[in-house]
Fold each of these.
Amino acid sequence: MLTVVTVVLAAVVLAVLAVGMGYVLGWANRKFHVAVDPKVEALLGAMPGANCGGCGYVGCSEYAEALARGEAGVTLCAPGGVSTAEQLADIMGIEVDQACPYRAVLHCSAYEHQRLQRREYFGERTCGAANLVGGTQGCAYGCLGFGDCELVCDYDAIEMVDGLCIIDYEKCVGCGACVRACPRNIISMIPFKADRMLVVVCANKDNAREVKEVCEVGCSGCALCARKGPELFSMDGGLPIIDYEAYTPDHPDLEIAREKCPKKTLVFMGKPAEPESF
Amino acid sequence: METLTGLVLIFISAALINNFVLHYFVGVCPFLGVSRKIGTAFGMGCAVTFVISIAALLSWTLTYFILRPGAPLPSWVWAVAGGNPATTVDLSVLSYIVYIFVIASSVQFVEMYVRKFFPALYKSFGVYLPLITTNCAILFACLEIMKHLQDPMRLWGLHEALALAIGGGVGFTIAISLMAGIREDMDICDVPKPLKGAGIALIVAGIMAMAFMGFTGVQNGVETALSSLLR
């Protein structure tokens, strides 16, 4: 008798709870329905879903929303690459103008022995800590060489060689983790319009004398490149900037500027790696 | 006054002395998973506090009226069925399934509601809600409340259940925020390679748990202080 009543009661309680909650949730689902653009869902479906944040948005869904609003381009998804960009463009009904992958480049080329070390550094062996101290390394802009970028790279694409971060473009997928990890902000993402891209491998904006004091290979800011190739090169203080919007792989100014550069701080990076320069 | 002292004691006990994470080791999953930045950790703590309060409210109601031994509803059914009044119907076996069920669906409901009417709030804290639907810290709070609804002579009221739940949530927030602060500083530390990531996080959690053992026995002092204060 007790067993029967208990079992029946248990069944009834669970059934009532299930039906009641189901009803409430179903009602809430319709009542509180938030219309989601079907385009956003389609865009989200075409993405890799890695939520890496390489596009600059928090996760894939936010990028999909920005895309649907027309605020973002279709080429920002680095892990998805060209195929994803084409799919996204298809859904949006637009043409892919230039679906080129973004890859990380380091704006420093000085190995440890080429940079002035004012004194020995005894602190934590991370760039983040060394950057806080400052003053140990002569150049206030260049690579610190403790490999914070190497540590955050999930794709094993960064190796520290003699205190300098070397990126392996066979492995780099352009997630941008190293860009965020670098406390000196000398890694940046550039559109790889060809397998190898010309890069300014120095970040020191000081004048020639100051640069020479702290680094053997730093850019002297002579502005020869900007004079020879004004279409692509412009000067920002003591440092040239390459206009990657106007950049085309076969632009004649590239070779001229590279040859004229007295300090050889204009270097082609990408795959295959160039052993003599990097 | 006695009630108030009791409530404060339950609250302090749940928040510090018997901290859910650092004393009972429940809710360790979000404690380790979402403790990389203080901002997100605090958001997670607030979400847990919120959900735990709702879960306590619902589970206390269900337990008090239906699930506990000698609850009004089963007793009434038993009497109608003509059973022996000396025996009581006990539906406690249903507690786990009912709690999980109620927690999951109420969180789902809250998520829908917040998403519709507070989109900004949803963006900042909605993402945590699905993560904690069946979190064991919340289930633990419900089971703890159930434990205090077994003896018909000393039944917990709703206010006591809520004090436990909110205290537990506050304790979780304290623990996860402390952990996030430590882990933020640890990012620039020279951690031995084999211990990087989860390893050192677990060691830190263990040391924190030992530190929180220092609160053991504090309740006696708190009780004395409170009773002299409120007399």
Amino acid sequence: MSVLVFLIPIALFLGALGLAAFLWSLRSGQYDDLDGAANRILIDDDD
Amino acid sequence: MGEIAGRDQQIANQMDTGAWSRDMMSNCCAGGAVALARSQGPEADFQTFVAADPEAFVFQDEEGNNLLHMLVENMHCANCIRSIEKALKSLDGVLDARVNFSTRRLLVRWQAGSGAAADLVRPVIDLGYFLTPYNPEMMRSAAAEEEKKLLRALGVAGFAATNVMLLSVAVWAGLFSEDMGPATRDLMHWFSALIALPAVAYAGQPFFRSALAALKNGRLNMDVPISLAVVLASGMSLSETIQSGEYAYFDASVTLLFFLLIGRYLDMRARGKARSAAERLLLLKAVAATVVLPDGSHKSIPVEAVTPGTIVHVPAGERIPVDGEIIEGRTAVDNSLVTGESLPVEAAKGDAVFAGTLNLNGAVRLRAIKTGDNTLLSDIVRLMENAEQGRAKYVRIADRVAEYYAPAVHLLAAVTFVGWWILGFDWQVALIQAVAVLIITCPCALGLAVPVVQVVASGRLLQRGVLVKAADGLERLAKVDTVVFDKTGTLTEGRLDLINEESIDRADLDFAASIARNSKHPLALAVARRGRAVHAMADVTEHPGRGLSVVLKDGEVRLGSREWCGVPADFKDANDPQEGPELWFAQPGRQPIRFLFEDCLRHDAVETIAALKKAGLQVELLSGDRAPVAEKVAATIGIDDWQAGVKPEQKTARLEELKAAGRTVLMVGDGLNDAPALAMAHVSMSPSTAADVSQTAADFVFQGRGLGAVLEAVRVARFSHRLVIQNFGLAFLYNAIAVPLAIAGFVTPLFAAIAMSASSLVVCFNSMRLIERRKGETQ
């Protein structure tokens, strides 16, 4: 069971990484314009 | 370009979500084509934009660049976003242009000194997108901050719930296979505690705060049992962990918080969407007043900044911004938004005019008068305050349920504790059983029962252009048995339309329309709407107060008032004996043609009233207009109970009567004169064209030209009510099964987790039935 000593911290670290990414995306305004994000994928960048 | 637009349209139709889906019914635009067709003309829009004084809204960021926030009209697809941003970004000096499609806002950042704001955004207006500058400080609301806070709490709770569950599943698996040693289990519990306790302390705050506030007022709400269960479960689990006990409920407490936060966030977001849309409508209407300075020059300032005694210039076709007395000029004033009177009233020097009315004919100057105790608006506001006091305070269904539910739950937990103690168990064991009861009964499904329905319902209504402004609006609307309508602007369109189209030669109408589209005057607009502007007319002159003229090779053609077109006062058109607002069209060597206008009924008014009656509702009409007009409308539309010439205080008196007779009234109105009635009725709706005060007072605001929104709102509200009741039923059913097991001591953390999730899912799925099926949808 000593493997748990690694596994649990790794799992927690990955989870915390996800949370940090979420909080970052929230802060950087990615939740401010959800309808716009849905539409922007239709825009071609090349022209 | 056409190909791209077609593809976008297809994809967009498949996605078809959100408020903008209604716009997709028409062809998608190729870079503003549709927008251009809908706008009044770029030149007029540009003048309106300049009149709003955009320079006053330009701010500087930290680096000294200019910032301008604007609201965008007519924007409805991905191509619109691209056209607008491309048009701006290709300009020199523009650093950034960003459209927010959800809130229909545009932010432009450009280098200071590279031109005036108006010239900078000119290309966007030329594309057909009408812009209105606004002050971002005015838009910043506490609710938006609250929403972000809730989302953060949701993220933290989600993180904690998944990770604790990860550990809990291992513990449960260990219990079944019986090969997990106590040391490993303790380690798992300690890790769980490490994650769960800070998460509960952070993410539970919205509930703790609300529960404390309720307790302070000596009341119980749903948040009291929630907070108690979460705190007790965490505390008990911690003490179990310290004593290396077998059962810890960390997963239950964080999952509970996670689920409830989802419900709360959805609820908030649905309302936030409606709120931001409502705010936008009001901001778009916020008019500037054109003030005449002592040196004779004109300046646009916000209406609030107008002081009594200021001279204000009002061009023909614009709304009068302030209460005042005419000192120069003569005109006809459309009072329909204020009094419900549909025929324009003549006003000349010395006459008083009111803010919100429409100046139809000629430019006038007026002296703003003090907004003292004698003005119309202050009368209305006073009436509204009285009316609001008369309105019984509505207690939401969830709170009414909580009133019985919370004490029952606490009593059950107490009984369990005492019971186990009397049966001779340790007090710790008894306490664990009592906490298990609290967790099991904890209203996870109950907490979701109302918000999920609310979200689905307001989303569906938003698609139909109905904004649910009041949080408890849907609940109140479900109970309605009587609908009282205002006439002008509610049953009717509130704008003048050409009614004698068939007696006018098509060629003449098209010719007149070509001239008329050069003017913003309401009557000219009505002509332009009906005719096809086939001829290009470059040199049309507008004569304020009289009409339009253009010189062609065989003489001058005029479109305007009777006198100006040289029509004798006793000349009558044999086909149209009817009185009303009119325009005359005089061409050289031909008999003048008369255009007759009327405020027409909304196109689906008759069907809507019939459908409302069929749904078991009584329908009444209370109009401020004259009796013959009201009678005619009532007869056409099929309303038997009608009253005409009703003053604002008489409207509230009638509502009082209805209330005394035990009726629950939905008031639908748009005018300033309806505002007190809107504030007083059990629930109220107003069209988005309504006066500001009325829109603020109403619980629902509907957009678009149809009246069908009223029917749809009533239907959705009734369906929602049924679903909420069903959801409560399902939640109670679950409790009826789970609580006896908990009291008897059969509940383990695993059982609690499964029961809680299952009941929440059942409630959510039930609520989803409100989502409209795409196929066979009729719009």
